[in-house]
Amino acid sequence: MSGKVAVVTGAARGLGRAFTEALLKRGDKVCFCDVDVQQGKQTENELKKNFGDDNVQFLPCDVQKDEEFKDFFNRVIQKYNTVDIMVNNAGIMNENQWRTTIDINLTAVIHGSLLAMNHMKNKSTGGGLIVNVSSLAGVMPVSFCPAYTASKHGVIAFSRSWALQPELKRNRIRITCLCPSFADTDIIKGTDDRVHGPELARMVMKQYGLMVFPYPNDQTLYFEIVVSTLNPYYVAFDSENSHLYWTGRTLGKINRCNPNGSDPTTIVDVSIPVALTLDTHNSTQNSIALHKVTFDGKANQVVVNLTAWPIDIEIGMSVIYMLIKLKYYRYHIMSV
Ligand SMILES: NC(=O)C1=CN([C@@H]2O[C@H](COP(=O)(O)OP(=O)(O)OC[C@H]3O[C@@H](n4cnc5c(N)ncnc54)[C@H](O)[C@@H]3O)[C@@H](O)[C@H]2O)C=CC1
Ligand SMILES: CC/C=C\C[C@H](O)C(=O)/C=C/C=C/C=C\C=C\[C@@H](O)C/C=C\CCC(=O)O
Questions:
Q1: Atom number of ligand 1 nearest to Cα 103
Q2: Which residues line ligand 1 (CB under 6 A)?
Q3: What is the pLDDT of residues 16-30, one digit of tens each?
Q4: pTM of this prediction?
Q5: Coil, strand or helix at 149
Q6: Residue 24 and residue 56 in contact, taking contact as beta carbons nearer than 8 Å
Q7: Which sequence positions are flagged as catalytic?
């Protein structure tokens, strides 16, 4: 699955940089952009040292500017001939500049997705993956940043709506959203005049917890899961079956029941909803049986045993969706 060509927007720092590193570690080539040229060049130098000059490139681009964004995307194709993975990550949070917030967080994500789709459906090898970075603010109201929240809801609505299009399935293009909650990046620094109610923002942040770099088990892990399931021969969309994947701080484990009766093997940690991935991947294979769900009263001791065999991580993750459906996650929120 590695050896793909990826584009990441807003990757001079923060989550975009972490996603870029996750892709480079997989063996992909990454071309990233940012409006902050100085930081972009510095990040490029650091990444080139670790991953090789030919594998990573920075190009300045303000995704808010249509022509610039288009030129950037075309330059990547000129250099690498193709784009297999498009990560629309660039974002800001500023309620005072609500129009700019919508422009960058939603309009540019729509633009980036369309640029990618247009290219992916026409390329000879066909197919690709679009990862749009939304937020937990994309699935729930957040009183201290309404415009930001609207932009992130829009990203999910746009992505899910496209996912329903048979055209995407036909062209083997998959579209997905990542929905983190709070990660320790510049976007949340100085949460003051950019939000309505900094006190509440700080309180909510404390309640939900802050993911800190290098995200060994959080964002990048999920990013890797999303990307590693990119399979040009197995792509389907059905929003009815859309998955909601939650990740973040570890809450418990999903265990695989071994057919020989030996102790279950842990395949993935179940986590509290510090972050969420909404995935439009087909779930027709995910008719697993929930064998047992036990709670011992501690937030980190949920055990979910699966009877299906063999199962892969995708199928395992659908259990988390069930937990959400069953509203167990409320329990988790209340217990932290
Ligand atoms: N850190 C967090 O708690 C969360 C972040 N997110 C989302 O993750 C994405 C990345 O954010 P972070 O890494 O946390 O923030 P960050 O502030 O560390 O990084 C954002 C990057 O985007 C760049 N950028 C901003 N406007 C741009 C534009 N017009 N064109 C090109 N680049 C631009 C910035 O220069 C910066 O390098 C955003 O979409 C954000 O909304 C979602 C949920 C939680
Ligand atoms: C202050 C920084 C804001 C957002 C930046 C970050 O990029 C992001 O996207 C994080 C979003 C996280 C949201 C997480 C949870 C939000 C929960 C709210 O619905 C809770 C709101 C009010 C609490 C009052 C209450 O109902 O208890």
A1: 29
A2: 9-10, 12-16, 33-36, 61-64, 89-92, 104, 133, 135, 180-183, 185-188
A3: 998 898 889 889 999
A4: 0.79
A5: helix
A6: yes
A7: 148
